């Protein structure tokens, strides 16, 4: 595994088994290809697709139809995320199995912490792309 936190070169200088402490507030928000969704990558392995990230959804944002290639876990810190199966609100958690497909919306905006084993695969709008 080649674990990293992009934008934190000081972490790369640490010994392999050292803990990595992040000042998350100092990490920059980076836009994704989905207008209205920005992210802060906390930890990733580009080789395997493993990713832990904060996602900030602006009110009214919609994440187009996508498939979870592996299990995805999301904890909602603020706001809510809604899809055809239900709504997950601040303080709640949802996990989706491999193969789950849905369109997600944040009618009032949201801040979520998400964990991926592999990136989502977009079906229509960004066909074949992953959220970056």
Overall form: globular
CATH architecture, by name, is: Sandwich
Overall pLDDT score: 90
Compute the number of structural domains. Answer: 1
Terminal-residue CA separation: 19 Å
User: Can you identify the CATH superfamily?
Assistant: Jelly Rolls
Give the beta-strand count: 11
Low-pLDDT ranges: none
Q: Give the class from helix and strand content and strand pairing.
A: mainly beta
- What's the tally of helices? 1
**Percent helix among the residues?**
under 10%
The CATH topology comes to Jelly Rolls
Write the layout of secondary structure elements.
Layout: E1 3-4, H1 9-12, E2 30-31, E3 37-45, E4 50-57, E5 61-67, E6 72-83, E7 86-89, E8 93-96, E9 101-106, E10 110-116, E11 121-122
Antiparallel strand pairs: 1-3, 2-3, 3-4, 4-10, 5-9, 5-11, 6-7, 6-8, 6-10
């Amino acid at each position: 595994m080649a674990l990293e936190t992009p934008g934190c070169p000081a972490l790369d200088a640490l010994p392999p088994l050292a803990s990595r402490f992040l000042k998350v507030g100092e990490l920059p928000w980076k836009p994704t290809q989905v207008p209205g969704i920005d992210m802060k990558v906390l930890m990733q392995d580009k080789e395997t697709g493993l990713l832990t990230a904060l996602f900030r959804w602006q009110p009214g944002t919609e994440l187009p139809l996508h498939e979870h290639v592996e299990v995805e876990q999301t904890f909602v810190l603020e706001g809510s995320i809604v899809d055809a199966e239900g709504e997950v609100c601040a303080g709640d958690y949802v996990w989706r199995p491999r193969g789950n497909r849905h369109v997600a919306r944040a009618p009032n905006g949201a801040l979520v912490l998400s964990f991926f084993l592999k990136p989502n695969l977009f079906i229509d709008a960004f066909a074949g792309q992953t959220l970056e």
